[in-house]
Amino acid sequence: MRSIPFSVFLLLLGTWLSGPARAQRWPADTLHAPAAALPGLYADPHLAAFGSTYYLYPTTDGIAGWGATSFTCWSSKDLVKWTNEGVILDLPRDLTWAARNAWAPAIATKGGKYYFYYSAAQSIGVAVADRPTGPFKDPLGKPLVAKSQFRGQMIDPMVLVDDDGSAYLYWGQGQCHAVKLNPDMVSFDPAAVIEFKPPGYNEGSFVFKRQGKYYLMWSEYDTRDPRYSVAYATAASPLGPFTKATKNPVLKGRGVVKGAGHHSVLQVPGTDQWVVAFHRFHIPDGNGYNRETCLAPLRFDAQGNILPVDVFEPVKPTKIKAAGKRR
Is 44 a catalytic residue? Predict the structure, then answer.
């Protein structure tokens, strides 16, 4: 048998290592991610639970410049099968002050009403409804937070309703802002706004409370960057001061999953089971304008630190138990 020159051997070896043979040696989870929770292109998902039903409120994606003009709502009884409840707020139809750039919604409930907070035309609005599926109406006729009213971009709202019924609004790109809302849920004292910027903070703030501790989470890098990821800090009060955790980020892409971020967190009512909703670049050909919504389990260690999220672990079907007592 005639031997081949050593230089040819090296060339063949390099081809083998970089080709299909090497791909077969990769961990399987870097090649096959779970299916997206919602069909189509959706980003910035806010996950909530009201009664026995889960709801997702996303940004409609797939439009250059993030030019969406309306918001939809999706419902589920088990976190796995989702139903499109249709358009719940249409900017050109329902607003007088904005017609495009419908981004990053959030929802909260208080006193039997549902309050929908959203970004529109680089400002933050609020709409009110009697049901989580709307229809939502604009009670102000103007932004709740106007463009350029504070430092950074006035986008990405989130509201935490604390155990005592007090509600807190968080928002901002490039700068994080926080303020206690008035009891009407649609106004606040501008002089009471707190501005701060945790190390690495960019946008997409989200706050929740677990076992007496407040968690502030946010997205780092730009949503068009494959490194887009989520970090967090903790505090003893809803307005801080927040201290960034030493082990970050807790949510980031891996393998075919790119740009995992702009998330929300939900505690399954009556349990200490938690779920994170986030978006990633659409697989296989997505980018910062073509993203899809995903769900994954969120876990904590014994000290209350958030453990790294496995973006390849799908959520299991989980129904909300009746009359569950929240822990």
Answer: yes
Pick the catalytic residue from 61, 138, 156, 203.
203
What topology is assigned to 42-298 in CATH? Tachylectin-2; Chain A (2.115.10)
Q: How far is it, in rounded angstroms, from Cα 32 to Cα 311?
A: 11
| Dihedral sign of CA atoms 246, 252, 255, 258 in order | negative
Is the pLDDT at 95 greater than 90? The verdict is yes
Give residues with Cβ within 8 angstroms of 189, minimum separation 6.
Answer: 179, 182
Selecting among 44, 94, 138, 220, the annotated active-site residue is 44
Active site residue 225: no
The secondary structure of 271-286 as a DSSP string is SS-EEEEEEEEPTTT-
Q: Quick check: 93 and 136 in contact, CB under 8 A?
A: no
| DSSP states along 161-213 | E-TTS-EEEEE-BSSEEEEEBPTTSS-B-GGG-EEE--TT--EEEEEEEETTE
* Helix locations, 19-101, DSSP H: 20-23, 91-94
Reading the block at residue 226, the tokens are 């494959």
Kindly report, residue by residue over 2-39, the tens digit of the pLDDT.
344 434 333 443 433 344 333 334 355 567 899 999 99
Taking the C-alpha atoms of residue 207 and residue 273, their distance in angstroms, rounded to an integer, is 17
Q: Mention every residue, 6+ apart, whose C-beta is less than 8 A from residue 163.
A: 209
Question: Domain spans of the chain?
Answer: 42-298
